[in-house]
């Protein structure tokens, strides 16, 4: 399911946009509807995509987008408006796309297709490692964790195990901005693979557990919370 918001002060536009989204093939949307920028800003939900009108009373779409960007750098903002001369301002808040009213089905679907392509690439980048057998290229979401054991660093994926030519501490630093974190001096965990935490045990999606050191417990939990706040939820 993909969370998407529609924000427009015109009831007819809201209804038309919602209908088109429900007809969009292969993706099920959870749709929230807002009639003002103020109402959208009051929402605490994280959205993958926001369809946003620009010309609204009080807080217009430009200001609404600016305030949204302060708390969410990843959401895809797609403007839908009557006024073509707003394009310059739309780019200023890193709008993903810009569509003119009346909304055309083909144009909306094209932008949604592109948005999902970008989201997939950013959510699951390919990483490269030097192993005992040569260079390994692997999607980040396929990695569970790295472990230092018997003077070797192991990459544990969903299906295989590889021996790497590197230091576990170097991995912790290099991968920190890619959704990985060290909960223990001998482990680097993919936060995407965390199912939950109980005490000082980290449960992964494949049923295995990784130790969480008492010293790093608070730091790791904060890192996981930040990761989740960016729109990626726990596997249930």
UniProtKB/TrEMBL annotation:
Q: Which residues carry this modification: 4-aspartylphosphate?
A: 53
Q: Which SMART domains match?
A: LytTR, REC
CDD domains linked: REC
InterPro entries hit by this protein = CheY-like_superfamily, LytR-like, LytTR_DNA-bd_dom, Sig_transdc_resp-reg_receiver
Domain Response regulatory as annotated: residue spans: 3-116
Keyword Cytoplasm appears in the UniProt entry: no
The protein's GO terms of the molecular function aspect are: DNA binding; phosphorelay response regulator activity
Give the record's keywords alphabetically: Membrane, Phosphoprotein, Transmembrane, Transmembrane helix
Q: Where is each HTH LytTR-type domain found? A: 127-226
Q: Transmembrane region positions? A: 77-100
Q: Does the keyword Cell cycle apply?
A: no
Q: What does this protein do?
A: May play the central regulatory role in sporulation. It may be an element of the effector pathway responsible for the activation of sporulation genes in response to nutritional stress. Spo0A may act in concert with spo0H (a sigma factor) to control the expression of some genes that are critical to the sporulation process.
Which protein is depicted? Stage 0 sporulation protein A homolog
The organism is Anaerocolumna jejuensis DSM 15929
């Amino acid at each position: 399911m993909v969370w998407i918001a529609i924000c427009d002060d015109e009831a007819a536009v809201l209804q038309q946009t919602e209908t088109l989204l429900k007809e969009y093939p292969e993706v099920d949307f959870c749709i929230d509807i807002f009639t003002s920028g103020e109402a959208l800003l009051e929402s605490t939900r994280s959205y993958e995509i926001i369809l946003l009108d620009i010309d609204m009373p009080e807080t217009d779409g430009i200001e609404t987008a600016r305030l949204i960007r302060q708390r969410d750098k990843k959401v895809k903002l797609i403007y839908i408006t009557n006024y073509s001369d707003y394009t310059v301002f739309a780019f200023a808040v890193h709008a993903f796309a810009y569509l003119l009213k009346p909304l055309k089905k083909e144009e909306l679907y094209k932008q949604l297709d592109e948005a999902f392509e970008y989201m997939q690439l950013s959510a699951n980048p390919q990483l490269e490692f030097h192993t005992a057998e040569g260079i390994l290229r692997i999607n980040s979401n396929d990695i569970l964790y790295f472990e230092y054991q018997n003077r070797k660093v192991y990459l544990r994926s969903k299906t295989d195990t590889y021996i790497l030519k590197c230091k576990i501490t170097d991995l912790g630093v290099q991968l920190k901005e890619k959704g990985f974190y060290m909960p223990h001096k001998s482990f680097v965990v993919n936060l995407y693979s965390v199912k939950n935490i109980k005490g000082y045990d980290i449960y992964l999606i494949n049923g295995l557990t990784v130790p969480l050191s008492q010293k790093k417990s608070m730091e790791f939990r904060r890192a996981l919370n930040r990761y989740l706040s960016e729109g990626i939820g726990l596997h249930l």
